[in-house]
Design goal:
The structure is a homodimer of 181-residue chains. Chain A is mostly helical and 181 residues long. Chain A has a three-stranded antiparallel beta sheet. In chain A, a hairpin with a 3-residue loop joins strand 2 and strand 3. In chain A, helix 2 crosses helix 3 and helix 6 packs antiparallel against helix 8. The longest helix of chain A is centred in the C-terminal third of the chain and has 29 residues. The first copy, chain A, is elongated, with a radius of gyration of 21 Å. The termini of chain A are far apart. The relative contact order of chain A is 0.09. At the A-B interface, helix 1, helix 4, helix 5, helix 6 and helix 8 of A face helix 1, helix 5, helix 6 and helix 8 of B. Chain A binds a DNA duplex (28 and 28 nucleotides) through helix 2, helix 3 and strand 3.
Chain lengths: 181, 181
DNA sequence: TTTGGCATGTAAGCCGTTACATGATTTA
DNA sequence: TAAATCATGTAACGGCTTACATGCCAAA
């Protein structure tokens, strides 16, 4: 119940590209994937266990140093099938945005309130920060076209995220300007 | 833990505008608010109880028919203060999008795959549907300017939601076109 | 040799969904 | 009078976060 375990499919999808240990998955959520999805290690490790119990993945241990072991997981045939099924399945219905700015604006509901102007300034600031951050990542990862072609999906969603931030900023600034005149 | 209870603040914010019973709040989530936030009645009623225990709200019973009672809640001074604090508090950091389309695109990662084209078509379809729905709601609620002025916050976020859908559709169609050429 | 990071794991507790449940009321 | 809706509630359970915890390793 609650929300369907999308995390399971994402881990399977990552493992379909390459074998990974729990900490590798953790690092992906902290790095390249972090703008789009996130999970803590305290959720990742139990999920890996469950998936192994369910026969979707297997692991072999690899030594780090002389004693420390890491478990590197590989998809089984059943796991490959499940992730393929998920990728073929239609997208679920769109969820409500659940955005804090949106809700505050709805609740304030007063064009003249100084709080509304403050809210817009905050929202503009945090999206400008995010926009810059994403643009830096684009420069870092995809400044040459070969990289873009090789990591099509990643390049695509990053480009999209940047455009979304820019569109949002444009709207925010237009609306803010109309407030202060 | 988990997520901070934004629901609590939203209920307080709604009650700051007018007194409401649990089922009224439920109806708001099913109607005008549903595009931006949602909660089930099985979460609303216990939350109202807790808020009453915490002294944030009070209720008086109103008869519906001859026997059935509904509890109409009112903000206390403490409740007013808490919702005001929340509205004054800076916005929380932006969360990862956790969007299914985005994750599938990231995981497929192959420009030539027919699955990617299918994914784009699905995403275009569901956003076109949503866009039309929102435009109809705008027509219904805000076709005259008096309504827009009176419900500034609502009009604002609805207008914004429509623009966001349009921007997203524009991007999706451009990208899809570049895929199929 | 100490400090920070690597790699893995468990426990407590709130959030949110689905399902179960009841009595009253309106409507066809 | 039967069916749908109103109004309120409880129970079970998975998702997700925060915090607690351990042993090993590399670098300063």
């Amino acid at each position: 119940m609650a929300q369907k375990s999308v995390l399971r499919y994402i881990i399977l999808g990552l493992l379909a590209q390459q074998d990974l240990a729990g900490c590798d998955i953790k690092k992906m959520f902290e790095g390249e994937l972090g703008d789009f999805w996130h999970s803590n290690h305290s959720q990742i490790y139990p999920e890996l266990r469950k998936m192994e119990t369910d026969g979707l993945i297997e692991y072999h241990t690899v030594l780090v140093g002389k004693k420390q072991e890491k478990k590197v997981y590989t998809l089984t045939a059943a796991g490959e099938e499940l992730v393929s099924d998920w990728l073929h399945k239609p997208l679920n219905p769109l969820l409500p945005t659940r955005d804090e700015f949106t809700m505050k604006l709805f609740l304030l509901n007063d064009r003249e309130s100084p709080l509304v102007r403050k809210l817009f300034r905050e929202e503009i600031a945090r999206h400008e920060e995010k926009c810059l951050y994403l643009q830096n990542r684009w420069q870092l990862l995809f400044h040459n076209e070969a990289e873009q072609a090789q990591h099509y999906g990643h390049a695509c969603i990053l480009k999209h995220a940047i455009e979304r931030e820019q569109d949002r900023l444009k709207w925010l600034k237009t609306e803010y300007a109309s407030l202060t005149q």
